[in-house]
Amino acid sequence: MDPLTIKSVLVIGPSGNVGRSTIKALLDEKFDVTGLSRTSSQATLPSGVRHVKSDYSEASLREIFKGQDAVISTISSIVVGDALASQKAIINAAIAAGVKVFFPSEYGIDTSDRSASTYVPFLADKIEIMDYLKANEDKISWTALVTGSMFDWGLNIPGFGGWNLSTHSATIFDGGNIPYEATNLDQVGRGIAKCLKNPGLTRNQYVYVNSFTITQNEVLKALEKNMKEGFTVSQGSVEQLWKEGASQVKAGEPLGVLSMLSGAIYGKGNLAHFSSTRGLWNDRLNLPQESLGEFLGEYLAKNV
Ligand SMILES: NC(=O)c1ccc[n+]([C@@H]2O[C@H](COP(=O)([O-])OP(=O)(O)OC[C@H]3O[C@@H](n4cnc5c(N)ncnc54)[C@H](OP(=O)(O)O)[C@@H]3O)[C@@H](O)[C@H]2O)c1
Description:
GO terms for molecular function: oxidoreductase activity. Keywords: NADP, Oxidoreductase. The chain has 304 residues and is of the alpha/beta class. The chain is built from 13 helices and 13 strands. Helix 1 (17-28) crosses helix 7. NADP nicotinamide-adenine-dinucleotide phosphate (NAP) binds at residues 13-19, 37-38, 41, 43, 74-78, 81, 83, 86, 105, 107-108, 149-150, 153-154.
């Protein structure tokens, strides 16, 4: 029996991409679940979840966090605004309320490598929050879930990572044989829930999980097989992809960060192939890996 037992869990940003999957997985694992939204939020949550709202003042958060064992931040990293940086005040309130474990809004590129912000600028905010948590780990434990590319999230954005499912076209970068980690949103949620089931193992750790390790060529083959149609394929270079994004960001176009992110996923900085460098936690957490072909079959039937 783990001496640190987690029963009550509060999710910040419960109706977002990661938030929805997290709520689902926590309910499946029978946690007592609360979702926290901004006062202005129009979010609606599934039954079985307590929904509270806050102006995010420290006093309000402290009150709401009382009695919670864990706080999971799935706060947005949308590049305009300071949502990621606001986690510092959230952590202070969690400490004051006696919360045992805090999950910062990570779920992507491996920020344990401090060079990550060179390749994707908004990761500087994530690294700063990790530094803050490490400096305060005698007061609150943390777990940073690293998931690489959010696979199904990316497929929904035409052009992201070179994929366009509606026009059956793809750009393959540097030959398409670069392995990278990809994790579906539901697997991210399950990863969070499994970490909370094993708090002694996962406290103060970067935890590396995925759905599958894949290459672009494997994805292309699986897409063509499932869609029963060939794709129009063009070739690109990772360096060019990343540089185009960096130039856009420099010119004040925040969405250029999506190309920088894709470049990082396809190998720039070597930040998204952690199964070979850090090792996966899937087995330790009893979190099965998924099959690319099976997943795409189900995903395409529902979404395309
Ligand atoms: N690796 C990848 O490919 C990848 C892809 C997507 C996301 N991610 C990561 O996953 C994390 C969550 O992203 P997401 O896409 O799930 O986020 P999201 O859907 O954009 O937003 C999540 C929630 O954050 C809340 N929120 C937004 N701005 C806020 C603010 N200023 N203060 C407080 N709450 C705010 C909103 O909840 P309410 O309206 O309920 O308040 C929103 O629903 C981020 O760290 C992101 O970088 C990684």
